[in-house]
């Protein structure tokens, strides 16, 4: 009677099973890792492209064809591009070092300082609006000969601080692009698929910053807004009469 082959030891059996599961897990995880790395590569390309573009704009200092109006408080028409820079931050995710965000900051300059002469009772509301728009200002009061406060004076610097932030959501595989004070004193966020983070979109962004075209706003939907599914009409069943 021939000897039966020795069965594998417990450790060998565990090793074989874990190897099978490891290979299966690696195969399923690879597409996810590739997607994360693809978003990261596109963000790095955005950083380098925008960094170079801002360097050129800082030398050229073009006039921006936007009119920035803060309610009925003040208006800054066609400011000039002054300076800017691009920054980034990294973080760890799924064993990878990925970009957490890329953000571009830049400053526009109006033609001359602005002086607002207002009723003292409305000064607080105006101050809140100026701070919300990140405007730099100084406030003082104007008194009459009896030292009674008659007016409040705001000396506002015609400086507009604008920013563009690219914030990836690696789990949903989208990139939210938030514009602040780019064409007006407001913020707006668009939700891009990773394949739309490319050079033509960067060009559209700079054109929008300079007021040359608004094509960029049509490149992606507003963030947080999902297309609704078309609802089919439900036919009401006729009641059966006895």
Q: What can you see in these coordinates?
A:
The protein contains three helices and ten strands. It is α+β, with helices and mostly antiparallel strands and 242 residues long. The longest helix has 51 residues, at 10-60.
Brief summary:
With 242 residues, this protein is an alpha+beta fold.
Which value, in Å, is the CA radius of gyration? 29 Å
Order of helices and strands: HEEEEEHEEEEEH
How much of the sequence lies in strands comes to 25-35%
Number of helices: 3
- The overall pLDDT, averaged over residues, is 87
Stretches where pLDDT is under 50 for at least 5 consecutive residues are: 227-242
Helix content: 25-40%
* Biggest beta sheet attributes: 5 strands, antiparallel
By oligomeric state, this entry counts as single chain
Globular, elongated, flat, extended or rod-shaped: what is the shape?
A: elongated
End-to-end C-alpha gap: 85 Å
Structural class, by secondary structure, is alpha+beta
Number of distinct beta strands: 10
Strand order of the largest sheet: 3-4-8-9-10
Q: What structural keywords apply?
A:
single chain; 242 residues; alpha+beta; three-stranded antiparallel sheet; 10 strands; disordered C terminus
List the helices and strands and how they pair.
Elements: H1 10-60, E1 67-70, E2 74-77, E3 80-93, E4 96-109, E5 114-118, H2 123-132, E6 137-143, E7 149-156, E8 159-169, E9 174-180, E10 187-192, H3 199-209
Antiparallel strand pairs: 1-2, 3-4, 4-8, 5-7, 6-7, 8-9, 9-10
């Amino acid at each position: 009677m021939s000897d039966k082959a020795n069965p594998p030891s417990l450790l060998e059996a565990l090793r074989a099973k874990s190897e099978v599961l490891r290979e299966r897990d690696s195969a399923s995880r690879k597409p996810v890792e590739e997607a994360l790395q693809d978003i990261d590569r596109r963000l790095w390309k955005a950083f380098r492209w925008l960094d170079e573009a801002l360097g050129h704009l800082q030398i050229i200092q073009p006039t921006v064809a936007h009119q920035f109006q803060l309610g009925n408080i003040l208006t800054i028409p066609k400011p000039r591009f002054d300076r800017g820079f691009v920054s980034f931050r990294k973080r760890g995710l799924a064993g990878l070092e990925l970009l957490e965000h890329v953000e571009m900051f830049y400053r526009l300059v109006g033609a001359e300082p602005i002086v607002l002469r207002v009723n003292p009772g409305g000064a607080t509301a105006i101050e809140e609006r100026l701070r919300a728009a990140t405007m730099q200002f100084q406030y003082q009061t104007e008194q009459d000969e009896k030292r009674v406060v008659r007016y409040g004076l705001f000396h506002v610097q015609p400086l507009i601080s604008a920013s563009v932030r690219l914030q990836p959501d690696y789990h949903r595989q989208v990139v939210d692009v938030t514009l602040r004070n780019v064409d007006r004193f407001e913020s707006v966020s668009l939700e891009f698929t990773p394949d739309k983070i490319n050079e033509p979109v960067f060009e559209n962004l700079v054109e929008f910053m300079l007021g040359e075209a608004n094509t960029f706003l049509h490149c992606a939907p507003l963030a947080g807004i999902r297309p609704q599914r078309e609802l089919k009409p439900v036919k009401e069943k006729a009641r059966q009469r006895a």
